[in-house]
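Q: Convert this sequence to structure tokens.
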Amino acid sequence: MSRCPCAWKAAISARYCVAMSEENVEIVRTLFDMFARRDHEAAFGYYDAEIEWDASRAREWGDVDTAGVYHGHDGVRAYWRRWLSAWEDIEATEVGFVDGGRRSSR
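A:
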């Protein structure tokens, strides 16, 4: 009995998606660590020059000062300057990362 080629493709695809999922979790963890160290500029090495940062839903949480859509690296910098200016000091504490229903811990 031969195996259905569709099942073979699905198995390859599933392994690829898991690998990409783990890679994406690592990228998010790296970006979070940069933020926690206040190394905000380092994140721009991960962002495309044409990035669109959509913070338009911030209004729903009462944040009208930063609500909007920001374009490019300069736009994202402007967003973060405005958002971070709300606090005298801020501390980022990782509690875990979740992807695809699976919990990833440090």
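The helical segments are 5-36, 72-84.
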